[in-house]
């Protein structure tokens, strides 16, 4: 504790007066004796009397004490805003300091972290204590650690959705005719936008099922394949926040077009949950799980 004393003006004048009297005593001694001496003069006695009387004034002097202190706050959640206010309690009651607001640093994201509605993310272990609301689970993080993709907590179609018209090639949408190249397509956002601009919700229900205006889109084949490869890390977080798991054998549309007849989709097989990439007739109906970039 570092004490700070708020001294009344009259007491400051008293202290200065004592210092002046003592200084005069020392100077006069030097002038008279040509050396530093403290003469036992009347002024020296006055100084002593004032110093002696000073403790007697403590009982009625209005001295106000304040102090600085340091307190360590632990177990804070990254990327979270906190409001702190100090308080002190004594016989007179409890007094509160000013409120201080600070935000903890957002740590780099990791696959399996939970993306929250405030745009931040927390680890699975920190989620319960964070008080935040989940909107997705992160399944890919770029080299910066601050950007990537997150999958929605639930399917977007209440039942199943068709990709689009059979025998209709969308002019501005690239065609990918082998799985290796299709799995390199990560342009889900622009793909979804092109599909929605081309056709209506009745015909292209998969692309229209997502909440595109709020940042969600139909993943490209590369994004969907990445999601399935991270499935074993993503699904524990989905479970923790009440999300819907990916059933083995469930078929999920991507936004990647194969040709005028087919589009790419992925399905999960086996206990490892790996994704099997293939294409299907656009008029067929499959599930939709949207993703978003952060």
Low-confidence stretches: none
Largest sheet: 5 strands, antiparallel
- Strand fraction: 25-35%
Secondary structure: helix percent: 25-40%
Mean pLDDT reading: 86
Radius of gyration: 37 Å
The termini sit apart by 45 Å
Structure description:
Helix content is 28%, strand content 27%. The protein is built from 8 helices and 14 strands. The strands form 5 sheets. Strands 6-5-7-8-14 form a 5-stranded antiparallel β-sheet. The chain has a 3-stranded antiparallel β-sheet with strand order 10-11-12. It has a two-stranded antiparallel sheet with strand order 1-2. Strand 5 and strand 6 form a beta hairpin. The protein starts with a strand and ends with a strand. The mean pLDDT is 86.
């Amino acid at each position: 504790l570092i004490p700070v004393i708020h001294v009344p003006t009259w007491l400051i004048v008293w202290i200065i007066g004592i210092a002046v009297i003592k200084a005069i005593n020392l100077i006069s001694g030097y002038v008279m004796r040509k050396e530093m001496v403290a003469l036992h003069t009347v002024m020296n006695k006055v100084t002593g009397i004032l110093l002696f009387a000073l403790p007697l004034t403590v009982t009625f002097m209005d001295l106000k004490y304040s102090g600085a202190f340091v307190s360590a706050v632990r177990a804070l959640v990254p990327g979270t805003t906190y409001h702190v206010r100090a308080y002190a309690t004594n016989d007179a009651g409890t007094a509160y300091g000013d409120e201080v607001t600070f935000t903890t640093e957002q740590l780099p994201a990791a696959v399996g972290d939970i993306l929250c509605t405030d745009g931040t993310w927390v680890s699975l272990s920190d989620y319960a204590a964070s008080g935040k609301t989940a909107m997705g689970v992160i399944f890919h993080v770029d080299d910066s650690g601050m950007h990537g993709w997150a999958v929605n907590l639930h399917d977007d179609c209440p039942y199943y959705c068709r990709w689009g018209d059979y025998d209709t090639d969308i002019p501005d949408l690239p065609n990918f005719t082998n799985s290796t190249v299709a799995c390199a397509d990560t342009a889900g956002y622009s793909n979804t936008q092109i599909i929605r601009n081309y056709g209506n919700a009745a015909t292209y229900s998969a692309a229209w099922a997502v909440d595109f205006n709020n940042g969600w889109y139909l993943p490209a084949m590369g994004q969907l394949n990445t999601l399935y490869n991270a499935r074993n890390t993503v699904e524990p977080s989905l479970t923790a926040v009440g999300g819907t798991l990916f059933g083995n054998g469930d078929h999920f549309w991507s936004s990647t077009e194969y040709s005028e007849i087919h589009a790419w989709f992925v399905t999960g097989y086996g206990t490892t949950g790996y994704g099997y990439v293939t294409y299907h007739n656009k008029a067929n109906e499959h599930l939709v799980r949207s993703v978003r970039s952060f």
